[in-house]
């Protein structure tokens, strides 16, 4: 019961922090919003304004992604696309990777040091699939790559596997790159109205979804053997 209270208290604190950071983000992007709704503003003017954001906005976005990633059930895709829209595919990917990595590290740190394990998660299909793989380390890495799997479940699986800190960090870094790149490129596609890029993104989502099948197949082979 005490652990439940601590979990809810942390979630509430996280949401409040996220609202505060969201307000700072709104202040940062307020000129862009005004230009977007201004019928007299040209597209070029709007594009220049969107790409004018510097280090302060990048830091706010990294903090926002980290908080969203650490709080269970909150997707980071919308902010990830905004990052790509503002900074392009290369810097955008870097910002997304940093935010997602820090968020997952924070989540794992809280789980480990505050003993916030929800033992019922051991019966979750994704956690069980990863834990019963022939190569569970690869399963953790793949889990971070697949957007439809909540990162909190992957973090839980990583902890229960007793992986070393270096192994967890490597899995997170490699695992979050594909989705981070996907969102950044999505923002870039919106910025330029590039339909070819949009099609590539759809293909990328399909590839990432196929990875889910890999998890189950590997699990079945391990069970058979």
TrEMBL record:
Superkingdom in the source lineage: Bacteria
Where found in the cell?
Answer: Cell membrane
Higher taxonomy: Bacteria, Bacillati, Bacillota, Bacilli, Lactobacillales
InterPro entries given in the database record? TMEM64, VTT_dom
Task: Kindly list any coiled-coil regions of this protein.
Answer: none
Does this UniProt record's set of keywords contain Lyase?
no
Record the organism: Candidatus Enterococcus wittei
Every VTT domain range:
74-187
Membrane topology field: Multi-pass membrane protein
Q: What is this protein called?
A: TVP38/TMEM64 family membrane protein
Fetch the Pfam families from UniProt: VTT_dom
Family indicated by similarity: Belongs to the TVP38/TMEM64 family.
């Amino acid at each position: 019961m005490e652990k439940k209270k601590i979990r809810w208290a942390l979630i509430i604190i996280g949401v409040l922090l996220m609202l505060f950071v969201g307000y700072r983000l709104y202040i940062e992007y307020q000129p862009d919003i005004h230009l977007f709704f201004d019928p007299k503003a040209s597209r070029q003017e709007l594009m220049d304004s969107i790409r004018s954001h510097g280090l302060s906005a990048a830091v706010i976005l990294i903090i926002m992604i980290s908080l969203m990633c650490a709080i269970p059930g909150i997707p980071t895709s919308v902010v990830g696309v905004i990052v790509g829209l503002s900074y392009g595919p290369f810097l955008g990917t870097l910002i997304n990777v940093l935010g997602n990595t820090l968020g997952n590290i924070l989540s794992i740190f809280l789980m480990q040091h505050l003993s916030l394990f929800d033992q019922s998660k051991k019966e979750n299909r994704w956690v069980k699939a990863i834990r019963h793989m022939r190569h569970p380390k690869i399963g953790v890495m793949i889990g971070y790559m697949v957007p439809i799997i909540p990162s909190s479940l992957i973090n839980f699986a990583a902890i229960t596997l007793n992986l070393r800190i270096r192994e967890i960090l490597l899995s997170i870094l490699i695992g979050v790159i594909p989705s981070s790149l996907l969102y950044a490129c999505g923002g870039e596609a919106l910025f330029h109205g590039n339909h070819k890029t949009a099609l590539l993104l759809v293909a990328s989502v399909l590839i990432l979804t196929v990875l889910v099948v890999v998890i189950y197949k590997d699990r079945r082979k391990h069970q058979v053997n």
